[in-house]
Write a structure and sequence with these properties.
Blueprint: H1 2-26, E1 28-36, E2 39-42, H2 50-57, E3 65-70, E4 73-75, H3 79-89
Antiparallel strand pairs: 1-2, 1-3, 3-4
The chain binds zinc ion (ZN).
Length: 102
């Protein structure tokens, strides 16, 4: 009986984990952002990948960055995401490569 309960709990954890993953995917996108005469601008697109947002941001000059929008709320990039953008910024990642964002 105890064993069954554990299995059931594990199943629930799996389902919730999967839902969270999907939910996260659906509610996360990236926006290009840059400063223009000390004003913060955002491109207002919903870019599915970091690199797409970076490509969108780059023509706006050196002060560009990428921000993540999660459930409609902008947030700073996480360490891993920042790494991808920096690699792109410093030319270590080709503009055509989306390998970092499967
Ligand atoms: Zn954009």
């Amino acid at each position: 009986m105890i064993h069954q309960t554990e299995q059931h709990t594990q199943l629930v954890v799996d389902i919730i984990g999967t839902l969270n993953l999907r939910f996260k995917k659906l509610n996360l996108y990236y926006e290009a952002a840059w400063t223009d005469s000390f004003c913060h601008r955002r491109c207002m697109h919903e870019h599915p990948t970091l690199l797409e947002a970076a490509r969108c941001a780059m023509p706006h000059g050196a002060g560009w960055y990428v921000l993540a929008v999660e459930n409609g709320t902008p947030r700073q990039l996480l360490g891993d995401e920042e790494d991808v953008v920096n690699k792109f910024r410093f030319g270590k990642l080709s503009a055509e490569s989306d390998l970092w964002n499967p």
